[in-house]
Amino acid sequence: MARMVQHRGASMVNALRGSGRASSSVSSPYAALLTAAAVGGAALTVGVACLWPQLIEEYAGIRIVVKKVRCNRSRGRGVGTGSKNEDKSDKGGGDAMSAALRDVIQHEISHQVHERVNAMNKAHQAAGWGGKVFPPTATLPESQRMRVLVTGGAGFVGSHLVDRLMAEGHEVIVVDNMFTGRKKNVAHWIGHPHFMLIVHDVVEPILLEVDQIYHLACPASPPHYQYNPIKTIKTSTMGTLNMLGLAKRVRARMLLTSTSEVYGDPQIHPQPESYWGNVNPIGPRACYDEGKRVAETMMYAYHNQSSVDVRVARIFNTFGPRMHPNDGRVVSNFIIQALQGKDITIYGEGHQTRSFQYVEDLVTGLTKLMNSDYGLPVNLGNPEEYTVKEFALLVKELVVGSPSAIVHMPATKDDPAKRKPDIQVATDVLGWQPRVPVREGLSKTVAYFRSELEDTGEIVPTGPDATRPKPCCSNVLSPSREYEDHLYAETMPAADETRLY
């Protein structure tokens, strides 16, 4: 029994030392102190008569108060004798202090130590995998807990949606081919009994049993979706077809994340859901614009013909932490350039307008729409409108001290002149509207990109030309043999590149 408790005490010491809350330079006497404490007994305050009238030592949140009391040889403690030899040994510093305290603490120790050990043991048992501690989640009864599929769930928006669903207590399956998704976005859930990550391309069928499907899979930034326009079209069409087939088979409700791009370069401002759009079907953005328009058509065809329960969200510009640093969008490019003191590049005169919503607001809108009884398309965006130049100036203001200058480059083809959502339907039907002010959300996003830069040293902003997403951090795993690690479980039969976590 003593050996078991001593092992727990040593484990606690190692864990606390590794937590960064205590300096490793204090390891010698106090590590021994805590180990001895774990072997010992029960009291909160330990009395020791030695050369320290009062010692208050905080070691990683465990407070041990040593007060001066009267102790003598008759108590058999072997400390506080007042002998000259003892005085000399006391002058030795840490070793004498450690020996004296250990001798007493073996009989009387803080119950706080035991409470901390018990708490750590419970946390390890709750983790169920390698002692990993996960973010808190609600506990739902079986009748309320759903199994939810999120395609593209390792991406920017998808990973935030996964966080919300996991926190609510649901079981979540993420399917992502990692083209723009990043494993680090969902790494904090890997190993949780309610979470599964499957590396799989939605253009290939997959057989699962789920209650709801959030279909987010598709590159969404112009440089990325223009890199392989045929694959972008296949993702929006074949991928949506496969997910609709799955929804039909298992009778799951399915939500498609469509886009404000279905409105093209709008001639109505702001854009309501009833507007049919103004899209160039053969332009450089058509692979994404028309792909999403076809995906919406397929959603309602399955609903009308096969009674599949569908939802469609038309998402406007969204920003926040976990944006891919190389996605080439306005928010990420401006922030990266400002943080690195590089020129902030605006394509065109900067008079074109955009409306920016924070990712937490979008996730709230998606979950509200999924769980509502409304089946027609719904705009989800922030009506607060900025010109691109105004937004660049705001970013520069928030990145205090940035020497970046604003420069203008040639305008890109088919870039919409105005973009602003009419969210009356979302407000009336879902009771939804954005809550996070743009300035507040931008401050959080600047902090995120600042941490990304600390990891990488430099990020080269992506221009308007088509390009493949680049790994931007040394700890980002690309879809390659690097996935063959201790988390690898099995290869799914649907496709060679499918892997399960």
Automatic annotation (TrEMBL):
Record-linked Pfam families: GDP_Man_Dehyd (PF16363)
Family annotation (CDD domains): UGD_SDR_e
SUPFAM superfamilies from the UniProt entry: NAD(P)-binding Rossmann-fold domains (SSF51735)
GO MF entries: NAD+ binding; UDP-glucuronate decarboxylase activity
Disordered, as annotated region: 75-96
Pathway terms, separated by semicolons: Nucleotide-sugar biosynthesis; UDP-alpha-D-xylose biosynthesis; UDP-alpha-D-xylose from UDP-alpha-D-glucuronate: step 1/1
Bias type Basic and acidic residues, positions: 84-93
Cofactor: NAD(+)
Subcellular localization(s) per the UniProt record: Cytoplasm; Golgi apparatus, Golgi stack membrane
Keyword DNA repair among record annotations: no
Boundaries of every NAD(P)-binding domain copy: 149-444
Keyword Transmembrane helix: yes
Listed GO biological process terms: D-xylose metabolic process; UDP-D-xylose biosynthetic process
Listed GO CC annotations: Golgi cisterna membrane
Membrane topology listed for this record: Single-pass type II membrane protein
Keywords attached to this entry: Cytoplasm, Decarboxylase, Golgi apparatus, Lyase, Membrane, NAD, Signal-anchor, Transmembrane, Transmembrane helix
Swiss-Prot/TrEMBL catalytic activity: UDP-alpha-D-glucuronate + H(+) = UDP-alpha-D-xylose + CO2
Domain of life: Eukaryota
Enzyme class of the recorded protein, top EC level: lyase
Chief localisation class: cytoplasm
Enzyme Commission number, as recorded: 4.1.1.35
Assigned protein family: Belongs to the NAD(P)-dependent epimerase/dehydratase family. UDP-glucuronic acid decarboxylase subfamily.
PANTHER family: UDP-GLUCURONIC ACID DECARBOXYLASE 1 (PTHR43078:SF6), UDP-GLUCURONIC ACID DECARBOXYLASE-RELATED (PTHR43078)
Name of protein: UDP-glucuronate decarboxylase
Source species of the chain: Nannochloropsis salina CCMP1776
Phylogenetic classification of the source organism: Eukaryota, Sar, Stramenopiles, Ochrophyta, Eustigmatophyceae
